[in-house]
Amino acid sequence: MTADTITTAADIRINARWVIPIEPADTVLENHAIIIRGSRILAVIPQDQANHEFHAREAVDLPDHVVMPGLINMHGHAAMSLFRGLADDLPLMTWLNDHIWPAEQKFISEQFIADGTQLAMAEMLRTGTTTFSDMYFFPEIVAQAAHDAGMRAQVCFPLLDFPTAWGSGPEEYFRKGADLIETWETDEFIMPAIGPHAPYTVSDGPLATALALSRETGARIQMHLHETAFEVDEAVKTSEKRPTQRIDEIGLLGPDTQCVHMTQLDDTDIDRVATSGAHVVHCPESNLKLASGLCPVQRLIDRGINVAIGTDGAASNNDLDLFGELRSAAMIAKVTAQDAAALSAHQALAMATINGARALGREHDLGSLVPGKLADLIAIDLSDPFLQPVYDPASHLVYSNHGRAVSHSWIHGVPQLQDGKLTRIDVADLTLRVNAWRERIRQSETR
Ligand SMILES: CSC[C@H]1O[C@@H](n2cnc3c(O)ncnc32)[C@H](O)[C@@H]1O
Ligand SMILES: [Zn+2]
Q: What is the structure's pLDDT at 1?
């Protein structure tokens, strides 16, 4: 045997027409192979070179496809998928006070969360998301459901001043939240985190306790912040402080904090976020649908702020397709900045991958196709006539595609989606359970 016949053993070799590795930035590779061993990426190299260097147990040929890192949906309320289309065409506070909170009071239970979270995961997997962040009731059920499905998830336990189906108030939320952190903190798939709902629902005391818990455990904090002009105006009226100022003065703005929405920002707000190293999670479609406002994404990026992207829940979006979200984000960024060059296709793709990984503190092993990182990746089939001709696959992914073109995904090196079919979720059984919820919810609405 000569030296050049020695090959390295691998588990999966994916032969892709195009690879967008995200790192290095703005790169499109052609006819490359991605080599996976166990849960990690071993190499991303030209297919000719792979023939000489690796021998994989399984080869997957994707001749019309782009392969890229799995998408990271950085904000949502997964089980709210069961409320999709229940209350449309309303502004945030009417939507919450008069429709969503009453519905949550009636229906939230462990089974609602299990079924709704599975519905959301099926949609997210089908459209290219491999990691999601959740902020909802019964986070222990969400964590178990994500783990069972083999999805990665940041699971934020909810924190509010008032009682909900999950607890009687802050004391109980913290007790159950500490259990959640202890149970999952070393898990490879689940990242337990702290979810103070919003400045207008959580007072200073619990926010200070959240900060202490984060410092003690390393758990990240995710909070709705500056979602609407009403939120900012009311805060200024009652406390003479903008919400970002109040949160900053409590000490809560920092590199472990993810601020969701961030519309209505003035220069002082942007300075505070930039100086603190906090992350912003942009949810453009929820902001549009609830007429909440616009996040000045390009200004934030220009100030060096890490901007990730999320869908928010399916009751305010009304889907969990992150590719659709990217298209909206790119369009809004251009008009907001009055600059067609704002948020390029490659920048948008980075928002849904490496920027999400940074917000999670997981950029060392998620968010790009780099040897040594975890094998969380997706393939998008560009053979559809509506996606022809292909000059630039990055352009198509953001401006022409929607998530249904996602054909394959792997998480931790395990196939989750093969030729558009979910491998680990029984969709027929799930549909029966979802329809049963629809009947219960509909009957109660018409009563
Ligand atoms: C603390 S559990 C999450 C809580 O948040 C509600 N919610 C869903 N979407 C939004 C949004 O865009 N802004 C504020 N609150 C939202 C959800 O219904 C739960 O009650
Ligand atoms: Zn939300």
A: 38
Ligand 1 touching residue 160 (CB < 6 A)? yes
Total count of residues recorded for the chain: 447
Q: Is 282 annotated as a binding residue?
A: no
pLDDT (tens digit per residue) in 18-39: 999 999 999 999 999 999 999 9
pTM of the model: 0.98
b/e code 33-44 from CB counts within 10 Å (16+ = b): bbbbbebbbbbb
Was 75 annotated as part of a binding site?
yes
Convert the pLDDT of each residue in 231-266 to its tens digit: 999 999 999 999 999 999 999 999 999 999 999 999
What 3-state DSSP class applies to 239? Answer: helix
> In this prediction, does ipTM exceed 0.95?
yes
Nearest protein CA to atom 1 of ligand 1, as residue: 158
Cα–Cα distances (Å) from 358 to 72, 133, 243, 323, in that order, read: 11, 13, 24, 19
Instruction: Output the DSSP codes for 413-435.
Output: TEEEEETTEESS--HHHHHHHHH
Query: In 10 A of CB 201, how many CB atoms?
Result: 16
Q: How far from 280 is each of 230, 255, 302, 414, CA to CA, in Å? A: 20, 10, 13, 30
